Amino acid sequence: MVPYQRQPVLRCLFDSRNGARTLSHWGKAQLLKRLKGKINTATVLESHDLDQATFQNGFGDWWLQSPEWLKQHPLAVRSDHDDEGAQAAQNAGRFLSVLSVPPCPDSVREAAANVFASYDRPRLEQRLFVQPMASDVRWSGVITSRSRSSGAPYFVVHESPGSDTGQVTRGSAGESQVTYIARQATGRRPLTTRHASLVRMIEEMEDFLGHDRLELEFVTRRKGLPTLLQARKLDCPSFEADEPFVTGLHALAREARAWWTNREDDAPGPVFSVMADWNPAEIIGRNPKPLATSLYRKLITDFEWAQSRADLGYHMPARHDLLRTLGNTPYIDVDLSFQSLTPAGIRAETRHKLTRSWIEQLKQQPSLHDAVELQIAETCFTVGTPARKSTFRQAGLNAEETEAFCRELKLLTQRIMNPEGTFWHDLEALSRRLGAVTEAPIKSGDAVIPALVKECKQVARLFGRLARSAFIGVAQLDALVACGAVRENNRPMFFRAGHTTTGPQSHRETATPGEEQLHRTNGHSLDHLRPGTYDIERHCYRDRKERVFSAPAPTPKAEDALACVNTPAIQQALDDAGMGIAAADMVAFIVKSIAAREDGKFLYSYYLSQLIEAIAGAGEHAGVSREQLSMLELSQLMPLTDAPVGTLHALGQVADQRRKAFDQSGAYVLPDLLVSPDEVFAHTQVQPEGHYFGQGVISGETLVINDARPGRLRGRIVVLEAADPGYEFLFGSEIAALVTCYGGVNSHMAVRCQESGTPGVLGIGSDRFRRLLTAQQVTIDFDSRRLEICSRQAGSSAVRSQNLST
């Protein structure tokens, strides 16, 4: 890959000493006029100013004296408020611009009136400007010269199809995407010629203005240079470590290349995802600390995940290291995951063809990476499987291989689901385990941590089998809905019929004045839960004033679901597919498997919490803080209690050093779906639509939370990055809705939203999530799958909706 060469430019206006000062004092139109004809890498459109005084008292004369181009082409009437000048990036998109205005005085007058009406505290000297509409526009958006959130050296392009840059600046994006291109890194390259032209434009603007923190609005056409619509200073944190950052980026690229080179010759091209299979971005976070990552590896992704599937009749891969990390980012090896989701009884060649086909499907539809088990891989036999035999043929299977695959898939599914199947034995084991859960205090000592690790792994294997059974249950339900045997509006009943340990009996009691509110019912205590299940720095509810309880898990009532479905229609669909199971047994399996997974998650989180608190207790005894412990790995902590003082001091030093490296790695931006090592330097992410659970339209105030003391929850639309079982308190708090950055269609929160009837939009993606963090009010239309920010202008009673849907 060839690095960019900075274009030789002439600083026509000012040098670096006064560039920032001048940039901050120019309005939008004023700056564009000074740039026109003086930059080589972008087109600057003609523009014509109009102030409020002239608009009110002399619009007719202004129109007559306007240049001829203004009367010949469709126009854009753009705001030019003092508060959105070159140094007011935070106000980008705050004020109205009107596009595609006919070139006649009445239309321009009406558009100008609307723009001025959007200003708060309008004054006679306030301005707007008129430009010709750019023709043949393909993309519009914003490019920044650094990461807005961290200041790290990335060119960041937020763009969407069409000519309205407001789709990006106001957060009203329809189909939008974000591209990160590392600066100053030898070997980086843009993904398209469009991105190359945008980078050349912003590099020239940096040289021209003497300022390397810029934000440019643009449109691009089918041919020719990009058109610059606005330039302003980028408001971002200071970042003083560009050279170490670039050095570290190259180290990450070398590590990533090893993932691609150390593969079997006939293996499909690898793909790595932060949300496939065991969903690490949702469970341990997009930027987890070393202890959390090592716990997840040791307890689940090193071996137990694979063994739990082999116990059910799935293939046991030769390798078991499901989780990889690049920098701090946790990735699932999707090829390994797909292998483990095929029946053990099929031939290796058949398995290879299937996994290669599924990986290619994922590359073509990257937004499905958080739903691969339900929407890409065929992991169980359902009433819809016979109709999909043609897709198996398209994957390269011949007729014999297709029949063998379907036969083995059916046998595997029947062994799990049938009344004497493995699921029902696991359900009995779960019941025994839940009955043995106690609130006995944690003992300290050198042997406690290894013993708890062993216990956690045993429970993790049981939980893994229950989770896979629940995926099969949901797949069966979806197939019955798809063929019409179950009505779509009856689907939520299957989730609500199987009340779980952390189920909808939870409620909030009103606290006495001045006291923390309590969450409680009359059964199992959920005191062991913590927001951030694997994070030792987050205290569990046992150590807080807040307390969460749940009622004992009642027997799931499959008859509740049976009462609202057409049993003969289900039986007919099952018989037509040769499923060999009665409708009542199928409904019972669906209901109880979904409930059992959540109860298994409760059980696993209980033992995990015991382990984390044992580690914290040993650390306290040894003089190592929770913060320091979070920077260490589990293998370093096993003999912590009886270690000599010198070893403990050394561990503290190691933790402090790792904190520096961890913080630096947190600035790297890697894709959610990694399909090439080159994406370390440059990648594009299409923003996902999100998964909608609910009906009708809900509007309300937003509340961003990341802990268990968020303030008033009732009636609020809660916004958080990812929600693990530690956020169970939300479902007893009468929230209006839940919105998350990460969350799969069959994730814990997806199940809990459907089970409790709480509306939710899960997995909306990082770009839309970032814009929600500063929103005050949101409207969610579940029927049309739209998410909108509603902003109230200062001094105005008007509320403007900004569409965030895809």
Automatic annotation (TrEMBL):
Gene Ontology molecular function: transferase activity, transferring phosphorus-containing groups
Origin: domain of life: Bacteria
A Pfam family of this chain: PEP-utilizers
Domain PEP-utilising enzyme mobile: 715-783
NCBIfam families recorded: PRK05849.1 (NF004508)
Name under which the protein is recorded: PEP-utilising enzyme mobile domain-containing protein
Source organism of this protein record: Marinihelvus fidelis
